[in-house]
Amino acid sequence: MSSPLIVQLDMAEFCEATELSDAYVIEIVEHGILEPQGTEPKDWVFNDYELTLAKRAAKLRRDLDLEWEGVALALDLLEEVQQLRAENRMLKQRLGRLLVE
Asked: Class assignment of domain 8-100?
C-alpha cells in the first residue's frame, strides 16, 4: 500500500495555484491564517491544506469584504462547525448501534 502523496509548493507555485500575488500571500501569513514551513517568504513551503485555506480566505475577504481579522475568525468558526458536524455524525452512528442492540 503506498503512502498518500504530500503536496509541497514553494511561494511561486503557491501563488500560481491560488491565483494570488506574493504580497497577498504574505499578508495572509502575517495575520496567522497560513503557517508555511520556512522563515522567510523565499523559503516558505506550503501544503495542500494551506492551498485550500488560502483560496477560502481570499474568497471570504472578497465576497464578504472582511478585514483579515474577520477572515481568520470566520475560518476558525467554519472549522469548528465542520468538527462539530463530524462529531455529531459519529455520535448518531453510536446511538444508532445502541438502539439496534
From this structure: mainly alpha
Q: What is the pLDDT of residues 47-69, one digit of tens each?
A: 999 999 999 999 999 999 999 99
pLDDT digits (tens, 9 = 90+) for 19-34: 999 999 999 999 999 9
The cell numbers describing 52, all together, are 485550500
Plot region of 9 (φ>0 → left; ψ -120 to 50 → alpha; else → beta): beta
Assigned C-alpha cell, 79: 472549522
| C-alpha grid cell, residue 38 | 520556512
CA nearest neighbour of 58 among 16, 20, 10: 20
Question: Is the dihedral angle over the CA atoms 10, 11, 16, 20 positive or is it negative?
Answer: positive
- Each domain of the chain, given as residue ranges in start order, spans 8-100
